[in-house]
Specification:
The protein is mostly beta strands. It has one helix and 14 strands.
Amino acid sequence: MKKVNVLIALFFAALVLGCSSSDSGSSSSAQNVTFKFNGVDVTAAVTSAKLYKSQGTNEKMLKITAETTDKEFEWTFFSGYSADDAIPTGDYVSSENVDDGYAYVSFKINGNKYGMHNPDNGTLHITSCNSGAKTATGTFFQTLHAIGETQDFDYLGVTIPYEINMTNGVFTNIHYDVVVLN
């Protein structure tokens, strides 16, 4: 959970302190992430992708957000700081003792988003990251469990699964913006 706290700190630092630089040049073409959600094929449209860099905390974080009509998904990758505009290739593991990377799900209900699951075991893999084009490609699988629940449950009229299995995940050449934090 240390990395989750760092994620929160980086987010608030970006809001409060502002950015010393940002390289924007988002692609106008549609970008998607595909995977199986508890065995069902999903194509989620990318709504945001940012590489946050903080030399002061010696960290980088790539965060990709994508949505369907009823869910929002986030994939987050953590690494040490380097001056380039890329996240290192390789595995980003999420387990009981490691949280180098994880997937997260929020359910859209009545105009609000509710995150009810903690990421458990999973691996997010960056197969390539092009610092010049600012694109990332990779694969993932992640298991998540509902917080404080032991079985599927009803929330505001929506049945929420206790366990979420995201498998066969693929994202290809997702364009990201670079945000350098003060």
